[in-house]
Amino acid sequence: MKTKTAHLGDAQALYRVYRDSPDYFQMLGTEIPTAAEVELELGLALMDPRRHVELIEHGGQVVGVLDWKEAYPEPQDVTVNLLLLTPGQRGTGLGSRVMWDLESRLPPSTARLMASVLGENPAGARFWERLGYRFAVDARPVMTWYAKPLDPPTGEHPGSGPRTKEATDQATSALRGSAGERPLGLSPQALPLRVP
Fold it and tell me: Which residue range or ranges hold the N-acetyltransferase domain (predicted)?
């Protein structure tokens, strides 16, 4: 398994992942994006320097996508907007390996990982809970959010940074405030979060 940064020329590979995952879009109640829509959205995602769209390769083929954003919604957070594997790769442990790999290369200042679960997706919620994420924000019917605190960066002590009660309350308010907005961007899970 390896991940590679997606470039605009990878839009067709990303489109194939979406096309091969009709169950995901059916669960969301949306159509699979067209190849042109995927190319446009990938281009928009690549314009954001904090956003990372990565193709997941296994056995020499692209079998998934990981879309994550640094410093979002708080400066020391990383948010996973989308982790999507094609149906044949689910339940194999590949998703867990992808996330462990991501954790190993996060910016050192990262104090918390966030993950969103769009719509009614109990399997998605169980996946994040198995990896140590805990339910954080109920923004249903659009989504629920899960959070995993990480060890504080070197030189900081527990309770500093975004894990303080005040920062957690601010992030929770920001997440709840976005519940009625329509998902934007490449990832169907990427809601714009307003941070006070």
Answer: 1-151
> Got the DSSP string for the chain?
-EEEE--GGGHHHHHHHHHT-HHHHHHHT-PPPPHHHHHHHHHHHHT-TTEEEEEEEETTEEEEEEEEEES-SSTTEEEEEEEEE-GGGTTTTHHHHHHHHHHHTS-TT--EEEEEEESS-HHHHHHHHHTT-EEEEEETTTEEEEEEE-PPPTT--TT-GGGSHHHHHHHHHHHHHTTTSPP-SSSTT-PPPPP-
What CATH number is attached to the domain comprising 105?
3.40.630.30
* 76 assigned to some structural domain: yes
Total of domains in the chain: 1
pLDDT digits (tens, 9 = 90+) for 113-134: 999 888 888 999 999 999 999 9
Domain annotation covers residue 156: yes
Position 196 pLDDT exceeds 50? no
Q: Which domain range does residue 41 map to?
A: 2-177
